[in-house]
Amino acid sequence: MKFIDSAKEDKVEEVSLRMNEHLIKNVYMVGYSLTAADPYFFAMLAAHWTTLSDETKETMPNLYRWLNAIQHTFWARVQSLGLVCTHPKHVKKPLTEAQLQQLKRMEEVREVMRQKRAEVDAMLSEQKKPEPVKAKPEKKQ
């Protein structure tokens, strides 16, 4: 694995690109199962991932897939270290003023619908419920 030498030299961007290439044919760093190499490289790259531009992240889909898989495998530890990796498509951006107004209108409509539903439920509960029809016992012959 050539990227191990690059990792030792702190060329993290180069390591990221090489790992992305490596992960085209591999699910994990060593084949198709989790090994000690996976959390090692995750710890090295997770903090770096946040410094990459969105354009750069989008050029490394295999690396993102792997980072996402590893972070969910070790989720509790990853959260405690603050190493959560996100993809630009999954980052929640602040809402625009128009979106905020639309959400407000939607909430107002929901409130009106809740009130109407309560009124209908009240009217239905006031109506006399029909008596259940009792079946006549069959006569024995």
SS content category: mainly alpha
Q: What is the count of DSSP helices, taking H or I runs of 4+ residues? A: 7
Strand fraction equals: under 5%
Query: Can you tell me the CATH class of the largest domain?
Result: Mainly Alpha
Whole-number count of domains: 2
Short characterization:
Helix content is 61%, strand content 0%.
Question: Any descriptors?
Answer:
mainly alpha, Glutathione S-transferase Yfyf (Class Pi), Chain A, domain 2, 7 helices
Structural account:
The structure is a single chain. Helices cover 61% and strands 0% of the residues. It has two domains: 2-90, Glutathione S-transferase Yfyf (Class Pi), Chain A, domain 2 (Up-down Bundle), CATH 1.20.1050.10; 94-125. It contains seven helices and no strands. By secondary structure, the protein is an all-alpha fold.
